[in-house]
């Protein structure tokens, strides 16, 4: 088993311990914390020369 499989198994085990309200909280937190592509496009359009879209998406700049 590689690290990804172990991580997934751990998360599945932990998720089974949560009640339905806890599962809803975790799912909503993940959804709210996701990066929005439209925001990245707007940052690229207005501040692209400064790399704001890369900073927002947490991408490394390749020089």
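Sequence proposed for the structure above (63 residues):
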């Amino acid at each position: 088993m590689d690290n990804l499989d172990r991580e997934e198994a751990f998360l599945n085990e932990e998720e089974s311990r949560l009640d339905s309200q806890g599962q809803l909280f975790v799912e909503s937190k993940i959804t709210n914390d996701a990066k929005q592509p439209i925001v990245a496009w707007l940052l690229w359009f207005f501040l692209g020369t400064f790399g704001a879209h890369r900073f927002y998406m947490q991408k490394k700049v390749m020089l």
